[in-house]
């Protein structure tokens, strides 16, 4: 009898998993096929020149890398500092960064009709600020990162490329390879 209950539970869990995967795929999140990401088409691509479409397609995958990496670093900082410093961990962020974040939030509040950038302060930090936060709280990250120079050099390289992508510029293949290499290094080191 016990094996029948376990079998029913196993089948039920399988049905729940299948339903969850189907829901994610309906939202455009491909789980079963890996990273086969399909863009959300809201504007006809034919309205743009083939050169622009091709360039955008090449840079789209790099944007995804930056989006994921930048937000993964934010999550790491939030998780690590809240674990080590408690609910008020934001107070351990350098004052200059906190003031910049407060200014961005106040500016954003003027435009109530528009979506917010983030629901947390860390979401308002600039990419370069993330490395500064880690260094300012070095004792909480030194077990993950070999040294501050390693962190600084990688973040400086990434920020240069990031700014090109975020302002609709094109990166040559050698820069894309550098981004991929630094990202792999980060994931192996911190992951």
Summarize the structure.
The protein has 191 residues and is mostly helical. Helix content is 64%, strand content 0%. The chain has helices at residues 2-26, 50-85, 95-109, 127-136, 148-166, 173-190.
So what's the oligomer here? Answer: single chain
Q: Topology as H/E string?
A: HHHHHH
Mean pLDDT: 87
Radius of gyration, in Å, reads 21 Å
Shape category? globular
Describe the protein in words:
- The chain has one domain.
- It has six helices and no strands.
- The chain has helices at about 1-25, 50-85, 95-110, 125-135, 150-165, 175-190.
- The longest helix is centred in the middle third of the chain and has 36 residues, at about 50-85.
- The protein is globular, with a radius of gyration of 21 Å.
Which descriptors would you attach to this protein?
mainly alpha, globular, 0% strand
Fold topology:
Layout: H1 2-26, H2 50-85, H3 95-109, H4 127-136, H5 148-166, H6 173-190
Helix pairs in contact: 2-4, 4-5, 5-6
